[in-house]
Amino acid sequence: FSDSQIVLLQASYHLPNVVTMLIFGIIIWRIGTKQSMLLFGSMVFVGLVVTALTPQFPVMATGRFIVGTGAEALAITTNVAIAHWFLRGELSLATGVRGSVMRFGSLSAQTSPTWARGAYTHWQWPLLLSVGFGSICVLGAVLFWILSSRAEGRYELDVEEHKEKF
Fold it and tell me: Less packed terminus of the chain by CB within 10 Å, N or C?
């Protein structure tokens, strides 16, 4: 790809999120955290699959668009999930762990040519590696759904007590 095409691939990940973040917040609020996490995690996975399908620039840009849209919405959803699960305490620790894991993921992707050198002998193999990580994303959303469903009703939050602390 040319330099301008690489820039467009990167922009196709970030550009939609300039205007869609408010919409994602409304969607999460309306359909719930569990459903949102599975929806947006699945979007990331589908976008990774589309990106890995072919070296044709328009298809790859479309895949990157889908990944970027789903990933940023998923980031908002995980913030909501952390707030629900850790509202009584350890919120700062949970947020810190989430941030560290996210940064480790970014670092792993950027350094993958060294630790996954063999995956770079063919253009599609690193993308297939990302599809594998995307499947873990969907699996994590399913696990979150199961754990959240089991916890519903067990831990009722005393809103008035929380307001007083605030």
Answer: C
